[in-house]
Specification:
The protein has helices at about 5-20, 50-65, 70-80, 80-90, 120-135, and strands spanning about 30-35, 40-45, 100-105, 110-120, 140. The two termini are about 25 Å apart. The chain is built from 5 helices and 5 strands, in the order αββαααββαβ. It has a 5-stranded antiparallel β-sheet. Helix 3 crosses helix 4. The protein is an alpha+beta fold.
């Protein structure tokens, strides 16, 4: 069974943070979760607020639990706010349904985890996450 490895998670995070730094983004935080939503790795750049862990985890957790990237979650929340509110209740208020939560697919195309990046605009967060996923030789669905 294909799984996201710690080495891949570290590559994703390192590259996402580098992409943010090179792109002049505000300080980022990034988390990688496995297919069960368990945290595999996390880093927060200097000067990023400490609460960023919870936001990054919420973006990644929502993506993997719902099987939807952050853009699709945002669209669903706008179209069906009561439904997404109910789902957030089911998951203990831990979903952050905005871009920056990106599904990670393995070589087989199966979801093996997700990445959550936060700190800049949601769109920029998603781009940083995708750069990290690509660097790990995996594919992402924002």
């Amino acid at each position: 069974m294909e799984e996201i490895t710690l080495e891949q998670a570290r590559t994703i995070i390192r590259t996402a943070l580098e992409a943010g730094r090179e792109g002049g983004l505000r300080p980022l935080a990034a988390v990688v979760v496995d297919a069960g939503g368990h945290v595999q790795a996390f880093e927060r750049q200097d000067s990023a607020p400490p609460g960023r862990f919870d936001v990054a985890r919420g973006k990644a957790h929502g993506a993997v639990m719902l099987g939807l990237g952050g853009f699709a979650q945002r669209d669903r929340a706008e179209a069906q706010p009561y439904f997404m509110g109910a789902l957030n209740g089911v998951y203990g208020g831990g979903l952050v349904p905005v871009p920056g939560g990106v599904l990670v697919r393995g070589l087989s195309g199966r979801v093996i985890g997700a990445v959550g990046v936060t700190g800049d605009t949601s769109e920029n967060d998603a781009e940083a996450a995708l750069a990290g996923i690509k660097a790990a030789g995996l594919s992402g669905e924002a």
